[in-house]
Specification:
Elements: E1 3-8, H1 15-26, E2 30-36, H2 38-43, H3 52-60, E3 67-71, H4 77-83, E4 88-92, E5 107-111, H5 119-131
Parallel strand pairs: 1-2, 1-4, 2-3, 4-5
The chain binds [cytidine-5'-phosphate] glycerylphosphoric acid ester (C2G).
[cytidine-5'-phosphate] glycerylphosphoric acid ester (C2G) binds next to strand 1, helix 1 and strand 4.
Length: 132
């Protein structure tokens, strides 16, 4: 069984997230998604609308996702790849090159981001609409 992993906040789930989850799953048979904990998110300078538990429940309902784990720090990827017996590590290409150190353990694939959508843009649009 070919196992794939990807990481992210996945807040306010949108088609950009779905596109990368679908393409990640197409690279194997089993997809593990590591979702940033609320504490780790704060470290990334992000405040998710949904809590970790909510984001986990939403991701677990997505047909492409087989397992959801927590992302608590930047250093856990090597250990995760080993522990979960991962064959392919996938990220959007805004991270191009940042995780090449994992190439000793598994295939590293950066996929094109979906243009024109982001959680930040959704929040901006909603704020403008509510202030209109
Ligand atoms: N993504 C995408 N297209 C978009 C928006 C996001 O392909 N329009 C991808 C990102 O490239 C990433 C994944 O969806 O691979 C999750 O995006 P975020 O939730 O923004 O995650 P991020 O803050 O990039 O966290 O250790 C890695 C970090 O946890 C990644």
């Amino acid at each position: 069984m070919k196992k794939v992993i990807t990481y992210g906040t996945f807040d306010l789930l949108h088609t950009g997230h779905i596109n990368i989850l679908r393409r990640a799953k197409e690279l194997g048979d089993y997809l593990v998604v590591a979702i940033s904990s609320d504490e780790f998110n704060a470290g990334k300078g992000k405040k998710a609308y949904y809590t970790f538990e909510q984001r986990k429940a939403i991701l677990e309902a997505v047909r492409y996702v087989d397992e959801v784990i927590a992302e608590d720090n930047w250093e856990q990827k090597k250990e995760d790849v080993k522990k979960h017996d991962i064959d392919v590590f996938v990220m959007g290409d805004d991270w191009e090159g940042k995780f090449d150190f994992l190439q000793e353990q598994c295939e590293v694939v950066y996929l094109p981001r979906t243009e024109g959508i982001s959680t930040t843009q959704i929040k901006k649009d909603l704020n403008q609409k509510s202030n209109a």
